[in-house]
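Annotated sample (chain length 260).
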Amino acid sequence: SIHFPGHQEKNHFSTVEVPGKGVIKPVIERDLDVLRALGLAVPEGQAMPKIFLHPLELSESKARVRQLGLPAPLLALGIGSSRPAKSWPLERFAVLAVNWCQRTSGSVFAFAGPEEKAIAHRFMKEVDDALTGLVPLSPDRAGFRSRIVCEQGLPLRQLAAMLVQCSAYVGNDSGPKHLAVAVGCPTVTLFGPEHPLEWHPYPREAHPLFFIEGLACRKDAHPGMPPWCGVDICIQEKHRCMKEIGVDVVLMEIERVMRK
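Output written by the structure step:
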């Protein structure tokens, strides 16, 4: 191995010198520096990830959408994250899901990771609570409820194929966002404690993000790095980096970038 993605990492076990060490840049560009070191011409800022799916995988995902009874437009929600501080409140995801179904007559496919069963369960409870508050009549609630599903622990290629069927993706700063980009699904990413510079190297017209600038509580970054907070659960600041992102503005961005 000649490359480790951290910007302060040195070259290891090789005489090949990777350029750009010590430079603050998107992680994907640091990875591509390895190819540049090997003599390949890769212009900066022009490479996008791409996943190639087999036609059978795509047909199976279409059949899965039909089996779940999810009408278009289908919104994907990535409700998981690597730590609670990076998570938008589940009740806001739930309200967003109900609002989407009300405004578009579409449906919602939410998902969580293999170790996030409790998160998936809590999300559906929040959906029920949101329906109680937003949909007055019980029969109408049942109709909306049938159009909001949450799955947990999907294999990555199955998840990628499901994202192909979606009109847009919205979620926390986590791995599924990159999957969505790689299959051509428009994304809206919710950033909280960590600055998007390293982990969002995508054109923001098609892949906008929300990030509350200027919060002094992001004070854990190494010198010269973008603002960053390393807490697992935010108590002192009441998680305002995420709670200051409202449902209405997120929904407006989704409607702007979604595949029509």
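Annotation: The mean pLDDT is 92.
Annotation: The chain is about 40% helix and 10% strand.
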